[in-house]
Specification:
It is built from three helices and eight strands, in the order H-E-E-H-E-H-E-E-E-E-E. It is an alpha+beta fold. It folds into two domains: 67 residues, GMP Synthetase, Chain A, domain 3; 59 residues, Roll (SH3 type barrels), CATH 2.30.30.180. A five-stranded antiparallel sheet has the order 7-6-5-4-8. A hairpin with a 2-residue loop joins strand 6 and strand 7. The radius of gyration is 17 Å and the shape is elongated.
Amino acid sequence: MDLYELLEPTLAGLGYELVDLERSPGGKLLRVFIDKPGGVSVDDCVTVSNHLSRFFAVENVDYDRLEVSSPGLDRPLKKTADFIRFAGESVKLRLRVALQGQRNFVGILREVKDGILKLEVDGKMLDLELTNLEKVRLVPKL
């Protein structure tokens, strides 16, 4: 079982969503990005950090430093549930394989259905396969 699969149900049990997980090349730094309805506070990060420190000791997860934070205003979207939740929002995305000679797009996330993401770019609708998405992030509203 990989670390993401180990953490997801653990954090869900605490009332948090695991948004992303990063591990440094040496594997000694772990960054865990969490979210919950209404947003994440510093106290939430402290609570999760304390819980994960004990959890990792029990599960023999090797690391030197743990960072827990919110995903930020430019939150990454990875799961189908993320695309459904943020329908109507502006996103910036990068494709693995170019579409019409282009890999980077900025547009409005319209819907996800049957493995296809519908993205509105300059009034045109693009159908993008979820398997071709390399990176998707919300565009912050400032």
